[in-house]
Amino acid sequence: MVTHRFDNFAESCCQALACLSIVHSVEDLCRSWSSVSLQQNFADYLLTIMIWIICIFLPYSFHCKDINLYFMTLDLNLWITVACAQRVLISNKLGEKLVGLLHEACSKELVILCHGFRATKDDSILVDLAAALASAGVNAFRFDFAGNGESEGLFQYGNYRKEADDLRSVVSYFSEQKYDIIALVGHSKGGNAVLLYASMYHDVTVIVNISGRFALEEGIEGRLGKNFLQRIKKDGYIDVRNKKGKFEYRVTEESLRDRLSTDTLLSSRSISKGCRGSH
Length: 279
Ligand SMILES: *[C@@H]1O[C@H](CO)[C@@H](O)[C@H](O)[C@H]1NC(C)=O
Prior knowledge:
Rossmann fold, membrane
């Protein structure tokens, strides 16, 4: 890392840029805070301290190491939006508490983000999407499906229908709060959940599938090993272990059956014509 001083022109420019981007996001933050009726004064106070730390204290204490500082402040920028998301608890059909974070913007439009297999709401794709949506003025909600992350319930391998049900509870919750749900976005297994949702309910018009698996009968052997069907029939379950032999998760026969009986093509055909899909 090259160490150079504050009088370096490029350095000063990047400082200025960093400050601007921070100010911008803190301004957004203050607006959303005041919209949830938090004291504007407090937000102003915080804004001053933040700008002071980011634009004066950090550069001085690090002797302005290089362009990395700029990216560091951008990360901070993201961190601020993430840290200020509001925690929301929603009960699913089975009464399990689903934990999610609402990134607030100054509108009633909402996009719901769904994580993939063995991931959580804190998956970087969802965090980045939520921050980008919120700064574009659209509320974003990312949550943990039951059995994942902070949500209650047992982790399951298949469970596609249950995830679509969880999503149903989330959509209902926000519809009751008078949010206008403009899109459902799912990454990987979450992509299947949003598609399945759209095939059953026809109330959200934009569905985004990011890298969802189309043929669910494929890609199982890689995780469960050879002859998984025979083995699971015999024992009723297969425990998946990592390379070091450490237990990772249990796949029950029922959850495997759920996966094998989920037909993406069939459910895609039941999605209403007015719905716009994207992948
Ligand atoms: C979801 O997206 C992936 C690629 O991102 C694609 O392979 C798959 O076919 C899509 N699923 C549907 C039902 O469109």
